[in-house]
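Thread amino acids onto this structure.
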């Protein structure tokens, strides 16, 4: 059965974006981007909220046509275009780029997606991931800790009273100081 993986970059102080959705502090260099491409190419689909989907759809469909986006960045564009996408939105009715729309996170529907053949599914966006986590639907967490403190912004994990036990499944350190922490639910 496929797993639901929450994969996200965060600052050392726990934020996924700064004020105004600022992510300029991310240290995604060629090595890290290639690693992301390899992991993402193995997936069976993206599970995104509307905001994340719209941000991705505004850039990636034609990113490889811009000469400024060379190397791993250009290589990601066709991966994104061809990957099945499932967008959770109460307002969107129709979207492009191999995308299906769900209006609510329904555990039975998510389990049905997990039972389909193919690679794991990546949930993206703090709000959607929080909904999945609250329903016990996330199987693995891949946290990419960037060596920077940004002080405030959107936290990776919302405040909750729930305890989720995790087991360390692996780590990796990149040349730019980013550390991958991979945890599985116990």
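Threaded sequence (186 positions):
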């Amino acid at each position: 059965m496929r797993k639901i993986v929450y994969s996200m970059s965060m600052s050392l102080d726990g934020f996924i974006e700064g004020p105004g959705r600022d992510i300029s502090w991310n240290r995604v260099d060629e090595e890290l981007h290639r690693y992301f491409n390899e992991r993402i190419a193995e997936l069976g689909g993206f599970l995104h909220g509307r905001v994340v989907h719209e941000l991705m759809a505004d850039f990636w469909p034609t990113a490889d046509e811009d000469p400024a986006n060379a190397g791993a960045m250009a290589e990601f564009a066709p991966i994104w275009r061809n990957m099945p996408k499932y967008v959770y939105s109460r307002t969107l009715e129709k979207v492009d780029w191999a995308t299906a729309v769900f209006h609510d996170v329904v555990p039975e529907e998510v389990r049905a997606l997990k039972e389909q053949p193919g690679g794991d599914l990546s949930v993206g966006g703090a709000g959607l991931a929080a909904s999945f986590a609250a329903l016990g639907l996330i199987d693995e967490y891949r946290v990419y800790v960037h060596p920077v403190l940004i002080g405030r912004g959107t936290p990776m994990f919302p405040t909750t009273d729930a305890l989720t036990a995790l087991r360390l499944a692996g780590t990796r350190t990149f040349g730019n100081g980013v550390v991958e922490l991979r945890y599985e639910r116990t």
